[in-house]
Amino acid sequence: MDLISCSFCSTLHSKSASLRQFLSTNRTSYNSTSAKCRLKTTSELQTPVGVTGRDGYHSPSIPIHKVTVRDRQRGLVHEFLVPEDQYILHTAESQNISLPFACRHGCCTSCAVRVKSGHIRQPEALGISAELKSKGYALLCVGFPSSDLEVETQDEDEVYWLQFGRYFARGPIERDDYALELAMGDE
């Protein structure tokens, strides 16, 4: 069993056969200790989804990117590898990394992040407008990495307000008891 010392903590980690194979076949060089040890997090890289195929090897035709998620609410930093054809949230969960989410379909803002560096492709992100996307907001549940990526989680209410606040800027909507009575009568 190969042991490698970690540059972040003073621990020795075993270099698994799947990690050795991935590091030897991947064209992008990654520090093997950063692939095994997470700075400021308790999450540990398991067998990555999509990194090794069903027959046990990585397809070199699918690029793999390092994704760093700074979780503001929990004060954690998660680093993990994600193939370009895999959703970021799904891959994180397969590696026992807990990130905020709700719908998993790109329709809400629970998993919203702000891109600090890198590029994310999110054709199915209905929960945020084109305007917010252009300002660097993204949804992890339907996001694919297009490069190495660093993102920061956002407060769901803050993103929701950015998305829909202009519609409610005139104050709260008043209750219309007559309309409610009519609607209830239809049932």
Automatic annotation (TrEMBL):
SUPFAM superfamilies: 2Fe-2S ferredoxin-like. One of its GO terms (cellular component) is chloroplast. It is found in: Plastid, Chloroplast. Gene3D superfamilies: 3.10.20.30. The keyword Metal-binding applies. Its cofactor is [2Fe-2S] cluster. Keywords: 2Fe-2S, Electron transport, Iron, Iron-sulfur, Metal-binding, Transport. GO terms for molecular function: 2 iron, 2 sulfur cluster binding; metal ion binding. Belongs to the 2Fe2S plant-type ferredoxin family. This is Uncharacterized protein.
